[in-house]
Fold this sequence. Notes:
Blueprint: H1 4-19, H2 24-31, H3 35-48, E1 53-56, E2 61-64, H4 77-84, H5 113-125, E3 127-133, E4 142-153, E5 158-164, E6 169-174, E7 178-187, H6 196-199, E8 201-208, H7 214-223, E9 231-236, H8 240-246, H9 258-261, E10 263-265, H10 268-271
Antiparallel strand pairs: 1-2, 3-4, 3-7, 4-5, 5-6, 8-9, 8-10
Helix pairs in contact: 2-3
Amino acid sequence: MSTPEHHRHWLLELLAYWEGKVTPRQLAEHWQVSRQHASSLLQDYLKAHPNSLDYQPSNKDYQPTEHFQPRLLTQDVTEYLEWATRQTLPPWKESPSQLPHEILQHPPRRVTPQIMRPLVQALRENRRLDVDYISLTHPDNQGRIIIPHHFVNNGQRWHLRAWCEKSQEFRDFVLSRFRGEPELMDTTPVTPDQDEGWNTLLTLILEPDPRLTPRQKRVLEEDYAMQNGQLHITTRACLINYLLKSLQVHPRILEGEPEAQQLVIINKDDIKPWLFG
Length: 277
């Protein structure tokens, strides 16, 4: 059975593991207690787990030592990102009247704290970052300098939206494809405001496949709460491809069976400039 101590230790370990540091001020904010109380609770953790965290006077924070072993974490980066972006509540915030349910879990991607810590710091401090990255196009390590501005969950995996100095454009970087340990560099004037794909909003208009029978169309109209037989979804231009994939709508190919296609795009010209090649 979970206890308040369990809840506090989970958060402390989450921050120490993924961000590489934790402070009483930070814990006080998250735990909603005084800084003195947070400092006392942190000391309680250290008594229970000696040598796990080391105080750094120059930074005024506690950093994990080589003996630090998180006991309450899954060590899947999704756990941290979903907490950090407030997409889900911590594991103890479940309603006592919660209905029985199951959530489909995607296979975890291999992302280490050594990769995440500088990514998080660079994003928060608007700094350049020297990284090694692989892709299907370039399976060998490709060194590049990036400036991250948002973590994005596309429904299947997490990626990082960032300016790439090598390609001179904003791109999406899959977290599990970073290699080594990114190196923090100087601050930069590049900001998310300069990312046209991020700041352009598109409205995707969908309708039931016209090859379906009237009754089949009505099923879809009710499924998606369509208005006048159409579904309108607004999203960032750079995310339109992920949205279409999650809806199983291919922008260029019409499935042989309308039951497989289900939905068709009405305003292809509006979204065409933003589709992947």
